[in-house]
Amino acid sequence: MSDYSNLKTEEMVLNMGPQHPSTHGVLRLEIKLDGELIVEVKPHVGYLHRCFEKHCEAMTYPQIVPYVDRMDYLASMSNELGYAIAVERLMGIQVPERVEYIRVIMAELQRIASHMVALGTYGLDIGAFTPFLYLFADRERILSIFEETCGARLLYNYIWVGGLSHDLHPDFIRKAKEFVTYFRPKITELNNLLSYNKIFIERTANVGILPIETAINYGMTGPNLRASGLKWDLRRDDPYSIYDKFEFDIPIGKGWVGTLGDCWDRYFVRVLEMEQSLNILDQALAQIPEGDVTSAIPKRIKPAEGQIYTRVENPRGELGYFIVSKGGLQPHRVKVRPPSFISLGLMNELCKGHLVADVIAILGSIDIVLGEVDR
Amino acid sequence: MIIYEYLSELFGSSVLASVIQSLFPLIFLIPFALFAVWLERKVSAFMQDRIGPNRVGKHGWLQTVADILKLIQKEDITAANADKPLFNIAPVLVFAGSYLAFAAIPFSSAYIGSSIDLGLLFIVAASGFVVAGILMGGWASNNKYSLLGAVRSAAQVVSYEIPTVLVILSVVMLTGSLSLYELSEMQTSSIHNWILFGGNAPLLQKILLIPFMFIGFIILYISSLAEVNRTPFDIPEAESELVAGFHTEYSGMKFAMFFLAEYANMFAVSAIVSAIFLGGYQSPFGYLGNTLGLSWLVPIEQFLWFSAKGLFFVFVQMWLRWTLPRLRVDQLMALCWKYLIPIAFVNLLIIGLIVLIKI
Q: What is the chain A residue with the closest CA to B143?
């Protein structure tokens, strides 16, 4: 046996992104490699920074809504919902029952649409091209429903402070119900096509394991936290809007095919969440009352001096708004707690000791949107 | 064979005849590549519930021609600090490597580029040539992604040659010949003479051989997939990790060369698989030419059969590509070294025993 200990090896720095097919936007990862093994991952953010928070200080409260859309642009409705609730609580506005129902329906449709992108692009990261296109074709149905409702397909400006920009169109309920019945079997199809694929499981099981303590310490929320085994969902644990009226399960990771909190768990929790969103939609669509949706919108949105922090369960986790009002038409300070940004902070922890190919699998599994990371 | 003799008579020189004959596969390959790229798009579109190309020509069948015209017009960029000579040679070498294999592939009884006795061995060696080109391209690009892709590719192709050779060995034990032309001639007249069904062995031996021949066939097909870097083994050019792997930095016609080489390789391995196991150019039902008494029709029929078998396996490659995710590089190696090679070894032993005891 010869002695190799005096041989010098060098670490290689691989720069992934900001223009790379799998960084889900303009993210740059600085990866230190020992061969193909990862020593360190350093995410560099800010390529999409738009000064959202500073900008808010120069705008009136209703003007902020379209900007909120552009944070997590795959879940605009949920962003608007969080913002509207924050300002309403600051002002003490009670919105009509119908508005609450419509908001919940929109937020849950949005959650399904957002998870579809997450799961589809995740398949793409692993190398399966076809499920991505299937899911995008189905997402198109949700986007058409949104388009018919508010004219926009991605950035809606639909949920306003105190109400909605306008009522549903008469065909909405029928179309939404049609979608729910259409989409249920599609989840099984997705499972057969991708989730239970042997190669897919090989690539994702036991990769990027996130123990529950680490997840809590880093402030991980949403499906990523639940995949590690904690039943924590703001819709149940800190109910907002009318989520306490609906019955739904909170799926958590069980380490189905590997270890608890691995990439496959994070993937599959999202699949199960889509089913639960369908359940909520079923109930909400059946119970939706008649009424006016614009009656509670104040003429002038001018909250009294004070501050508030509200949080909602976004598809990507806990989205929090901290708003300070000095009594003017414009907020004094708006701070957002972005779930994607916090998830991204875990990259180094998750990637250490894995292979380059796993960086892609892990990054895809924590499902970030750079519009929200950078704001 | 007949064509070669005809050419030598025509030009009165065997050297000239060989040179001209060596161009024949190119006449087949270029239309094939154009068709296969179009087919790949249409197949993927069909599998993904899309329409696919439908603008240029009817059903978009001129799309690839338009693409080639576009690629010719593209600026030919050489990356800064690239090793220029190596960078320029690499695509040529890769294409040459895959073209080299066509020298020993029998398209029909009338045409085989070079009927060398060690045809199979030659093809295995020629496919190693491609690796040199890929490594060169990856190294010369001065790009870490290219380098990673190239190194992976080298490791992958070299590993997967072992199960390939083991399967080929087991076939050679049965037939006693390394010449693809002789192999094809052995599998004549009927479907049960295919080596997949035990070839020309006596009945009892055939029945014993069939399951092991199937195993060998599957191993050969899997490792041939890995050798041409197709999904689920497309790790050297894994798009989501390595952008485009070893050809990230290539553009224009040099990129087209890599592309052409990939499709040439796809057909080459499909052709080899069908030549070894599925009768090569032999018809499974007998020939129309023989029935009608038109002997000149037989080689043409054989050529059509050969293309059809090759195309079928090319189609299966596409089918797999648009269905399966991609393995990770270490899992790929594990599949080869932990499963395929031991199974191929045991398979080789069993086939050897069956052939040896001569039931």
A: A14
pLDDT at A112: 92
Same domain, B141 and B207: yes
How high is the pLDDT of residue B117? Answer: 78
A31-87: per-residue pLDDT in tens?
A: 888 877 888 888 888 888 888 888 888 888 888 999 998 888 888 999 999 999 999
Q: Residue B48 and residue A14: Cβ atoms within 8 Å?
A: no
Higher pLDDT, residue B358 or B144: B144
Counting other chains too, the contacts that A172-176 makes at CB distance below 8 Å and 24 or more residues apart are A172/A145, A172/A148, A173/A285, A173/A288, A175/A145, A175/A148, A176/A105, A176/A109, A176/A145, A176/A281, A176/A285
Taking the C-alpha atoms of residue A142 and residue A113, their distance in angstroms, rounded to an integer, is: 7
B44 part of contact set with chain A, CB < 8 Å: yes
Which range has the top average pLDDT, A113-117, B53-57, B153-157, B159-163? A113-117
Side chain identity at residue B78, one-letter code: T
Asked if B57 and B90 sit in the same domain, the reply is no
Specify if A279 maps to a domain: yes
User: Could you list the residue range(s) of the whole structural domain that residue B97 is in?
Assistant: 74-357
Spatial separation of the C-alpha atoms in residues A78 and A83, rounded to whole Å: 9
B47 and B170 share one domain: no
Query: What pLDDT shows up at residue A23?
Result: 73
- B49 shares its domain with B190: no
Dmax over CA atoms of chain B, in Å, equals 66
- What is the phi/psi pair of residue B68, to 5°? -65, -45
| Within a domain: A179 | yes
Distance from CA of B53 to the nearest CA of A (A): 16
B28/B160 same-domain check: no
| Separation of CA B104 from chain center | 12
AA identity, residue A16: M
List, in sequence order, every residue forming a beta bridge with A319; answer none if it has no partner. A312
Q: What is the pLDDT of residues B107-116, one digit of tens each?
A: 877 777 776 7
- Judged by CB atoms closer than 8 Å, whether chains meet at A133 and B49 is answered as yes
CB contact under 8 A, B49 and A127: no
CATH number at residue A81: 1.10.645.10
B112 in Cβ contact with B104 (< 8 Å): yes
**Is the predicted pLDDT of residue B234 greater than 80, yes or no?**
no
In chain B, the number of structural domains is 2
Q: Which amino acid, one-letter code, is at B309? A: K
- In angstroms, the separation between the Cα of residue B331 and the nearest Cα of chain A is 8
% of chain B beyond a pLDDT of 70: 96
Do B29 and B127 sit in the same domain of this protein? no
Domain range enclosing A365? 52-374
CB B52 within 8 A of CB B318: no
Q: Does B148 touch chain A (CB under 8 A)?
A: yes
Please tell me which residue of chain A has the smallest CA distance to B44. Answer: A130
Mean pLDDT is lowest, of A227-231, A356-360, B175-179, B286-290, for B286-290
Tell me, yes or no, if B192 comes closer than 8 A to chain A by beta carbon: no
A321-328 own/partner pairs: CB under 8 Å, 24+ apart: A321/A82, A321/A83, A321/A86, A323/A86, A323/A87, A323/A90, A325/A90, A327/A302, A327/A303, A328/A302
Peptide bond into B342 cis (omega under 30): no
Above 60 in pLDDT, residue A341? yes
- Are A127 and B331 a contacting pair at CB < 8 A? no
Model pLDDT, residue B181: 80
What value does the CA radius of gyration of chain B take, rounded to a whole number of Å? 21
8 A C-beta contact, residue A183 and residue A138: yes
